[in-house]
Amino acid sequence: MRQDEKEDILTYMERFKGERQVLKSLIGSKFLEEFTKNTPEYKALGSDSKAQTKLIEDSFEIFSTAVFLRGANQRKYGSLLEGYRGQYAGGRNHYPTTLLTAVDALRTHKTDDKKKLKDVQKKNDKYTSKDEGTGENSFAQNASERRCYACGDKEHMLDTCPVRDDIPRSKWFDRTNREYNLHQDTRNTSIDNRTENDDVENFTRPCWSGVQLCMNTTEGATINDRSVILDSGSTISLFKSKHLVTDIRDTKDKIQLETNGGTRIVDKEGQIKDFGKVYFNEDGIVNIFAVKDLIKRHRVTYDSNNEDAFIVHIGNQPIKFRANQQGLYVFNFPNSYMNYVNNKNTKEVCLQTNATSVEGYTKRQVERADRARKLYHMLGAPTMTNMKAVIRQNLIRNCPVTTEDVNLAEEIFGPDISTLKGRSTRPSPTTVVDDLIEIPEELKKKNRFVDLAIDIILINRVILFTSIDRSVKYRTVVPLDSHKKEELYRGLDQVVRIYNNAGFTIRRIHCDNEFKSIMDPVADEMDIIMNYANPDMHVPDIERNNRVIKERFRIAYYRMPFKKIPKIMIRYLAMVCAKQMNIFPAKNGISKYYSPHMIMSGETYDYKKHCMCEFGTYVQGNTRSSNTNSPRSVDAIYLRPVSSLQGGHEVMNLATGKRVVCSRIVVCKMNEGVVNIVETMAENEGISSLKFSNRKNENVLLLDNDLITGVSENEEGDYDNNSKSTISEVCSDSDEEWNEDELQETISDMKCDHVVMSENENKNSEREEGDDILVDEAPIENEDKISEQQEDDEVLVEEAPIKPSPRTTRSGRSYAQVVERGVEYSRESGLFLARVINESRDSTIGVEGSFSQQFSLRRGLKKFGTKGKIAAQDEIKQLYTRECFEPIMVKDLTSSEKKKAQESFMFLTEKNDKKIKGRLVYNGKPTRGFVNKEDSASPTAANESINITCAIDAHEDRDVMTADIPNAFVQTNLRKENEVGEKVIMKVTGVLVDMLVEIDPQLFASYVTRENNRKVIYVVVLKALYGMLIASLLWYQKFRKDLESIGYKFNIYIYIYDSCVANRMINNKQHTIRFHVDDILPSHVDSGVNVAFLQWLNMKYGSVKEVSAKRGEVHKYLGMVIDFRSKGKVKLRMDDYVVDILNEFPNKIGSKDIACTPASSSLFDNKNSKLLDHRKKEQYHTFVAKCLFLSKRARPDIQLAVAILSTRVKSPTNQDWLRLERLMKYLNGTRTFHLTLGIDNVKVIKWFVDASYGVHPDMKSHTGSIMTMGTGAIQSGSGKQRLNTRSSTEAELVGVDDVISKILWTKLFIEEQEYVIEKNILFQDNKSSILLETNGRKSAGKRSRHINIRYFFVTDQVRLGNMEIRHCRTDNMFGDYMTKPLQGEKFREFRRMILGMEGD
């Protein structure tokens, strides 16, 4: 590279350093090693191995310095360079050996002027010898300063030196006397400055600093970046640390700093608080306060009798410069000053400098061009042809950028520099291309089985698991923590889950032979065929994919203002690059109509969601608001948008370096302080530049493994075979080009009714410990489950989809992929399977809502004061009393135990009775990687079980009690060591350490240690603490075992119908126990039995704190008020919950805002309507979730409306919002409505099942069901059917099949309560479907023969006597309420029956 004509030397240096860094990252710095060993200088060092090693290490710096000088402007510096060459030819090497000294030499050199060269030469001749140095800028010695270059003697010259051959060249006088060389190198400049008054870089004054020599002597001991030295030998104050100086700027009076080590040009200055201006140079050794400057501003005293320190009196806070071991007087800046500097540095630096005004263009045109360039990088820097085509065809909704803006950006900004730096090509080798068939229809069905290629790449030693399949061409990147088998399994498991969730199955995996020992077990467990490449060969697909990811990574990297980025940004940038490449339809993929992103996720790329902000942008992310003066936002770097329905943004918190999720962000201008913070984070992680390496951590060249024989460069359409690798063609030939007509045909054929799937991203790929998740509001009960249901709009509301459990391998790991095999069941097996509702359905059952806010210990103590401290002390004292842990010395821990040790957290909350409660929690989140889901999931009581048993309680007039076991988890013992001999270790920190020591100083005081200036005690956990993933399951196992030990049975016939309901016959009557974790609901006709059971609970679990119990006829349980005051009936109320929903609804609902029904008759209509904005979409999701929770418990009358609104959660419109608002108005008019249940005959069950044919926009039908035993709907359901039917008869038949498992389960569950079911009646109003269900295939005509035989399963149940089917008139078909939005009297009549009301 060359210095431009108008480019100053500093700009040229910065540009050169950037290019040098790129070169170094690509080829390394050891390519000169062999050359250096053959040089005379290396050989002259003989056996001095240290000097030889140093010469090799310095070779790259010397080489780059020579290249830098060679590229300097010859017109300006030609005479200087000619002088260097002349002296080198004469045996005297005066070439600078570092880039810094080269810059100093060029800056101190007077710019050449051809018109004055002759005059200058004549004046130089006065000071030079006639026989030496006749160049334009002479380097000859002054006659009075003439010395022998070899020995330094003034009496003779080099050619007559008698000891010339005896002195090694490296020891010659001109090489060892730095001051003499400096004088010789700069003498001509001084002469010229004395004789000419032309425009050169003038320096206001020479300055001196001697501290560098001292530092070299002392090797900088005890000095760090926070230190500043008080120096009486310096004439200026000079700082080198950016994080100590504010307002860094170019100085008006550049200075030439003279030191014992040479000269340096200082051209920047800054501010130090309470001191003023200082000079700034990053290449300095230490920070210096000159004594002469300090005494001008403050009083300085020194008294050696008191202390060996200089005291600077600044206000009431004097600071001391104390003497260190080397005799230097040092002061270390405190953290408060560092924070002040970070907040003060607000100098603006844009992500990529763009002109705000350009000659010949208006301000508006420049803004349009800037927006187009930003979108270009948000889409992963595609070719201009691709970008324009995507904009023309409206592939990005709501996109404000036009093709004219793209052309305008090219005109104003020219070719994109970061693209030129980041992308490169090589000549294509002979290609081997797989001829994949393009299938435009039924993509997933015909391409269900896919082949996957996997590999690992390393960027700055960050391990990235990459994959691409050979059908969809979907690319993934999963960051890993290590190369261990467990991590590779985790990466593969995440990728497999993405394909499984999208309906694909991995058939074969292609990878390098290095994976063989690791992947063979995967092949055995998952029935996947492994194909390993031959030794010294590679898998072309993945190697080519790796190359493209690296190129996109480089483009984005050079786009940012950071010279280095931390590992968390590397992880996310790699994932973002992979996601961006999935936006465009893949050439040679299974479809030219749908992109891999659309095929795998069912989503289109949305500008407003996915292109709101560019990676690496400086943003402010919102935090949870409070009543304190703490900031409402955090400084952060933008990473990527969140893929959930709620939306949001993932950012990197600049204060912690951790990932944070924010619901809102505000883009801010980048400033130098932010750049410094990011680069400092990278430096702390040992990152200095961008480096790609292989699995052996060896730096790799730009020539990747994909550029080898057998690896097609054009198969993905990324490059043109005819590309000549010229840099001017990089931007036009690096991506696949789509024909405009082909794209038009593609878009016109695309259908909008494809199934919308959720974004399948790597939700666990970032495993940063201590992730700080920011949210705007408290989580909603069951919200995760609701989202899970609504992602597939075919799911019935009353029943969660029964998904296959992840398969467990021999090693204990689980994988998402389950291989389907045909299984033939006997009649008896089929019956038993039909009787069971999988326990996974409990995942849709909500838990009791807690509306109290929890506070961390620090915030809680501020809010609650002494009460909070007492609550925290009581909690930790209780755990100590229960012997929940014991201390352990750090030295006694294994490395694995210490690594897995998790911190404890104390939370404080104010309960409804105004008492402050403390809760010590084990941080179980990071342990998800160590614990299988199967080992941590605890069952809970089903809502249906609660309703049935409560109705029986009312029917038999039982005494009912609720009980709460205190600290249930901590009463469960843990094994002291797991199966591999490791203990469960927890770290107690901060204030909690003081509390433990105060409780038992003799036990805990000796175990206190310090980590990162915090007090820490390591303890071995002996009990299941709150927060541990396995705590709830361990408690369940213990409580169940304790109940079974005293005679209780858990509804076991062949299967467990509800694992949280137990029974025992006492006094010839049934004692029923229902429990949800530690909340217990027992009942018996004899109140004395409950009293005895409470005594047993206290004896077993109340030794430290008494088990609290509630007696009487009204109880609060699982978010409901259960009222037994009406004889023979139970009322389930949630009046307060309804009031809370109405008060929180964003649209004010007044007392007169009332609707007669939950939905209008047009509920199923799906007219074109505008989509809700992001904020309103989140509100819609929130309130639909709340209503779903309500409808499943006390208000089944709103279940149909909620079921339909739930199917719209993915993309709600203004019409859906109006429907939700109508539902709110209905609740407003029925605030006190509740569910009343009663039993007329405990031996008779009645089911009403109905279906509305083809009512959904996709012509699918809707199923509704009601189950009653007299008064009220004990069970109800409303949901969209899973498949299309051809008649109302088929719809009715499919509806029965949807509910059949519940019909059988209910019968068997009640029989386990020791009741004999005499009649299990199914009522229907369609006689044709009744004939099919009763007679099976015998009654099937031509139009019904295609119905799958599984729908005649009900026929077998009728024949076996498990149920009977009766006809019901349509006017009495209560199931009709759950299938269509009834109005008027029919609505009120059916509502009375469903809610068990005596009247409206």
Automatic annotation (TrEMBL):
List, as start-end ranges, the regions of compositional bias called Basic and acidic residues: 111-133
Q: Extract the InterPro entries matched here.
A: Aspartic_peptidase_AS, RVT_2
Q: Which GO biological-process labels does this protein carry? A: proteolysis
Q: Which domain of life is it from?
A: Eukaryota
Question: Entry's PROSITE patterns?
Answer: ASP_PROTEASE
| Matching CDD domains | RNase_HI_RT_Ty1 (cd09272)
The signal peptide annotation in the UniProt record is none
User: What GO molecular function annotation could you give as one example from this UniProt entry?
Assistant: aspartic-type endopeptidase activity
Residues covered by region (Disordered): 111-138, 784-815
Boundaries of each Reverse transcriptase Ty1/copia-type domain copy? 906-1145
- Put simply, this protein is called RNase HI_RT
